[in-house]
Amino acid sequence: MRQALSGILSKSASFLKTIMILALATTFVVAGSASSMAARSAAIVIDAKTGKVLYSSNSDGRRYPASLTKMMTLYLAFEAMANGKIGKSSRVVFSANAAAEPPTKLGVKRGGAITVETAILSMVTKSANDSATALGELLGGNEANFAHMMTAKARALGMKGTVFRNAHGLPNPGQFTTARDMAVLGIALREHFPQYYGYFSQRSFLYGRRRINGHNRLLGRIKGVDGIKTGYTRASGYNLVSSVDDGDRRIVAVVIGGKSGGSRDNQMAALIKTYMPKASSRGSGMLIAKAGGGNPITALAKVFLPKRDAPTPDSRPDDDAPYNEAPDGDAIASLVEETEPVVEEATPVVETRPVSQTRKIATVAAATADDVATARVAAAYGEPATVDPVNTASVPSGWAVQVASSPKQSEAQALLDETSKQAPSVLADAVGFTVAFEKDGVTYYRARFGFGSKTAASKACNALKKKKIECYAVHQ
């Protein structure tokens, strides 16, 4: 009996020893993989007029993006704005998840709300993690779905070496990119959304009574630098994507894995000085194709937000009407993300919206269970086969013609269809869509057609009025 028991214990000890060895081996492999991603710096310089690679160093090696991730979050936000899904003054409500993000952050409390524009400004300057999460949840329904959308969009833009897991870039071992991919995204942001690209040149912005300064020290220091984004985590090192335009030549340069903010900036400055003169003064067309195609991931991005007009087509919304944003004034220095100093002034004193109010204010259209399931499969961890079909050229400057509104979305859609039949030539190139808003506790749906400019929208509306169709042109 003792011998049998001794044998069993001996085998058990041997088994446990084997398990421990395997566990340690796995740990070393994972640690080694993570270390290899962060071990060497990577850089690339691309002529943004011709697409020619002027300089490359480890540009296709996997690296952690850190807050460069927010470039894709902003890309999808700009796309939603261009297509009339959201506007600059649309509200971004902060969930408990968004409010709990670690610094750098604005510090908006759960249930608080800011505008889309404030979210954008806080991301390009302060690199606010809570704003990125809140904006991602607004566009995707939840952050996991939004991360799938981000990865799908990366594939659509030709970013083959990138996978996103979150909207902000805080550490996640499954989130990675390459210097080349970040350069592609930098070029795409400028090419596809020139109307919004100016946000990246913002060096500071006023938030309540507080002046928030940005992290990008090359803005104003190097001639021609007009953006785009900095990033830092311990695993990634110091990252920077810069767009430079001297009026004749244009480049996008990327540095990932700098040992310090200063050395990263100096490396970027040296790359700009060396390769800007080698860029071409000539170029033809757009380098990065805009995404199109059919995929139910689009369902996750259908966001309907309120404005402030009555439910009639001839009542113009007052987009400049004041309302209270809800910052908490979190001025804690960055402990996780950006460690570069940020100069901030007095804490803002602004009311916080109760959760009950914010639930009435923002309504996110839920995709069907089948759509969500299919989208998740299509975007499964790294290699989504197709992308969302939003055509970013449809409404490049965010202008629309509203023809009606109804308490039922189906009726609003039917009105769009009927109007299209009545004026097919006028609306041939327009994109029809519905937008929800709240009025006296009742949800209504606007019926709108998107156009590429104010002139086009006004011209179309005048043509519709000649056909006895009431309408008005409005900026999203």
TrEMBL record:
Domain of life: Bacteria
Record keywords, A-Z: Carboxypeptidase, Cell shape, Cell wall biogenesis/degradation, Hydrolase, Peptidoglycan synthesis, Protease, Signal
SUPFAM superfamilies tied to this protein: beta-lactamase/transpeptidase-like (SSF56601)
Amino acid composition bias (Basic and acidic residues), ranges on this chain: 307-319
Residue ranges, annotated region (Disordered): 307-328
Pfam families linked to this entry: Peptidase_S11 (PF00768), SPOR (PF05036)
Record keyword Signal present: yes
GO BP term, pick one: proteolysis
Molecular function in Gene Ontology: peptidoglycan binding; serine-type D-Ala-D-Ala carboxypeptidase activity
Enzyme active site: 67, 70, 127
Positions of the SPOR domain: 393-476
InterPro entries, per database record: Beta-lactam/transpept-like (IPR012338), Peptidase_S11 (IPR018044), Peptidase_S11_N (IPR001967), SPOR-like_dom (IPR007730), SPOR-like_sf (IPR036680)
Spans through the membrane: none
Entry EC number(s): 3.4.16.4
Binding site residues for substrate: 229
Entry annotated with the keyword Secreted: no
Recorded family membership: Belongs to the peptidase S11 family.
PANTHER family membership: D-ALANYL-D-ALANINE CARBOXYPEPTIDASE, TRAFFICKING PROTEIN PARTICLE COMPLEX SUBUNIT 12
Name of the protein described by the UniProt record: Serine-type D-Ala-D-Ala carboxypeptidase
Organism of derivation: Mesorhizobium prunaredense
Lineage: Bacteria, Pseudomonadati, Pseudomonadota, Alphaproteobacteria, Hyphomicrobiales
